[in-house]
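Bit of a strange request maybe. I'm writing a small parser for structure token strings and I need a real example to test against, not something I typed by hand. Could someone generate the tokens for this chain?
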Amino acid sequence: MICFPNAKINIGLNVVKKRPDGYHNIETVFFPIPIKEALEVVHLENNTTPYTWSNSGITVDTPAENNICIKALNLIKQDHTLTPVQIHLHKQIPFGAGLGGGSADGACMLKLLNDFFKLNISSNDLKQYAVQLGADCPFFIDNHPALATGIGEILEPIELDLSGYHLALIKPDIHVSTPEAYAGIVPAHSATSLKEDIHRPIEEWKDCIKNDFEKSVFTKYPLIGELKEQLYQQGALYAAMSGSGSSVFGIFKEAPAMDAFQEHYCWVGEL
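Reply from user aminoacidic:
Good idea to test on real output. This should exercise your parser:
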């Protein structure tokens, strides 16, 4: 059985306050995008081991037991008896991009095992497993546009249809760690409501929908900010950094030419 984990972008990201547990409450809109990888599970005939793991495409350079797909498998096994499986991930979503690729893999692994073994785990219970893997993992269970609050795990579905628009995504060869990004943030409530602003015309988003990480990240990595400005120069209706970076995206009426970005990871597609 195979599924296709997809990436997401953050449209707006407000860091609201630091919590007593050291995490931060945020406000953001998660929006699924059609950059996908492939995750496959099949029965493993040799039952001397609970699973085998293999990877193609972008290398997942971590011990199997630390991989989020295996962590998802072990979570399900706490409550259900599973026979041995062979797992393969063909990875296409770049790491350290703010695109949620790892979180998508973990959430899709939960859903895949649920379907493969006919466990009948409800969507809400899958989300309870998912949040143990990562704050944004529950989003990928339903995989529909959502306003995310708390640390990203409190989801409110929203109506946001961007069909017909084109997305251009640029990922420079820069890694921005999440702790590094948060170190440059002074938490504060936004002057406007993202929940309301997201329903404005896209042409107005650049005046009201912000990513709080951009100021400090662009200061340390000017290239990321320059790429965002180049997307506007190409005619983007709205451009922003996704999450804590380092990818930036632009939303266009027509598919843009990407010749100026060819030295970086680039993706253009219809939403």
